[in-house]
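Objective 1b. Sequence-to-structure analysis of Threonine dehydratase.
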Amino acid sequence: MEIFLSCYDNAFPCEVTLDEENGRYMLRKSDSSGEYFNSPSELVDWIKNNWTEREFINPNEFRDMIILLEKYICKSPIY
């Protein structure tokens, strides 16, 4: 799953990638730097601790992403 969120401080969107099949859990921040994680839960924890809905042009997209990621983690038998 890849999610793109338009932010105020960059023309390129922030990107969240959760790819269980290939073990890729990462994101690209508004400054184009990135973060890599060992598990989906680490990814979601980082997002909750470092991003807020006010940073994004459409706050509903941010909230919807959090809900989607939390549902994913709850469904996963490993996490």
